[in-house]
Amino acid sequence: MTKFRWKLTALFMLLIGLSVLAAGLLMVNTYQKNHQAALRDHMIRELHVLNAAAPWPVMEDQAEQSEYLQRQAKRFKEIAGMRVTYIRLDGRVMGDSDHDPATMNNHIDREEVKEALAANTGSSIRHSDTLNQNMIYVATSVIEGKGTQARGIIRLAMSLSDVERSLSNMWIALIFGLLLLFALAALVSYRVALSVTRPLERMTSAAKRMANMDYAIRVPEGGRDEVGDLARTLNAMAGSLQERLDEIRENGTRLQSVLDNMTSGVVMIAHDGRITIYNRQAEKLLGSSTRERVGRSFAEIRHHFELVGLIREGLDNRMPIRDELTVYYPEERLLEMSIVPMEMSGDEESGLLLVLQDVSAIRRLEQMRSEFVANVSHELKTPVAAVKGFAETLLSGAMDEPETARSFLTIIHDESERLNRLIGDILELSKIESRRSPLQFSPVELPVFLGRMGEILSAEAAKKKITLDIQADEELFLEADEDRLGQILINLMQNGINYTPEGGKVKVRAELIIQEIGEEEIVRITVSDTGIGIPRKDIPRIFERFYRVDKARSRSSGGTGLGLSIVKHLIELHHGTIRVESTIGVGSQFILELPLLQP
Ligand code: ADP
């Protein structure tokens, strides 16, 4: 751009220089012409004066006449300082102030003489070889009275060196002036060029920054001329590019957050095997971070040999692949994987998309469900088989013995009772699990409520001579579903009675606790017994459905193995927790903690 500025400056200066030069030449020329004309007029007047003062003598003797004219010429030269020459009409020099007329050529062919003969006066400027100077010659013919013939010609000559000196002085002044003017012009041109090129320079640098994706730059818009228009256009362009870029960035972040919040692992692989997308869930399912993976080849995924093989197959065959895959890193998981070749418009060799879904939990659930069905059928089969067996025995004759019949019928009654309980518990459990009946929360006054529970179970406890000891903080209220809370406590207290030998004790305590963190108010209800206890290894499993530490014992006490899993579910619905502490032979303690107020 500076190049352009210099070019512009040079152009301005050339124009200014040429015009100044032309003006100078014209001036010098005019001056010279005027000066010469003035000099010539002056000399003509001198000639007239000379002629009047010393007219051409009328003498017969040529030599005498010449002598006279010679004298005259010398005298005049002394007075006026100009060379004087007297010339006869035939061109012979009769007198000359500077030379001897005898040595001089005939002057008839001199320009000024010719002109004087033709039109009275004549002038000429030429170089004199004798004096080696430029000379001006002015000649006039001498006429005595009107209509008479001229007697001769008087010529004045003067060196032009004075004029030329003053002219050269003038030239020097002119050149100096010109140089000064030129310098001034250069300065002005530079400034003018700058004012033209500076906006252009600004725009160029702005355009360069835009090329580097910096669209925040704006240039001063200036006036309503073409340059201003260009600046405005440039600014508008930067503005719209900025908007477009923002849009693209926003889309990018939107896409990124969609990818990051997806529950599926998404991995995109370009046709050359480089990983281009590796979202957060993929990090979780396959291990290693996005930063480690993106830009690298999929073949570098160690730990997942099988997966790498499937990706390679997908890239080679360009066919969708669906499979289930067990990975052991970063932890054991069952992944449902689908590989889809991608077709992006315009790109022949687009890569493929790998979508991963963690199905471990679903599979585990499915497995649990089928195990549950098997367990249920098994649990149902036992009482049904008993009922069927005893009924058959009765039918095949035992009916006739009243004693046997009575005991068989008692067994049938007990077994069908168990069956009924079992079916009831299963239905209850499935009802809770499917959350078909939402909880009805209301304030429950614990001292009163727990007292009622004790009354319900007092007969059962008395049968085994077990003391029920129930204590609750005074006026302690708890927000809960009263029926469900009853179910929880009956189950826990009943277990306490069932798994405690005769003469033991079952204690229930309810107290308010303010948790240090968050100052949350919770109610802790503890159900403890002095029973047989639970082996440490079984503690984590007793809340599982149908899990019993001692099958025979549970059966004899009428348990279904579902009680604690129902308890656990109901407590979770109350946003509470339950844990167990137990020592074999000493007793067990079930500690449940429920929020005083439901969130
Ligand atoms: P069950 O109907 O067999 O009692 P639960 O789900 O209520 O089934 O309990 C699961 C198992 O936990 C029981 O079979 C028993 O072995 C053990 N258990 C529960 N409560 C107690 C307790 N208070 N003392 C000892 N063992 C217990």
Overview of the molecule:
The structure is a single chain. By secondary structure, the protein is of the alpha+beta class. The chain has 5 domains: 165 residues, Beta-Lactamase (2-Layer Sandwich), CATH 3.30.450.20; 40 residues; 97 residues, Beta-Lactamase (2-Layer Sandwich); 70 residues, Helix Hairpins (Orthogonal Bundle); 154 residues, Histidine kinase-like ATPase, C-terminal domain (Heat Shock Protein 90, 2-Layer Sandwich), CATH 3.30.565.10. Helix content is 52%, strand content 20%. It has 14 helices and 17 strands. It has a 5-stranded antiparallel β-sheet with strand order 2-1-5-4-3. A 5-stranded antiparallel β-sheet has the order 7-6-10-9-8, sandwiched between helices. Strands 12-14-15-17-16 form a 5-stranded mixed β-sheet, with helices on one face. A hairpin with a 4-residue loop joins strand 3 and strand 4. Helix 9 runs antiparallel to helix 10 and helix 12 runs antiparallel to helix 14. The site of adenosine-5'-diphosphate (ADP) has 21 residues, from helix 12 and helix 14.
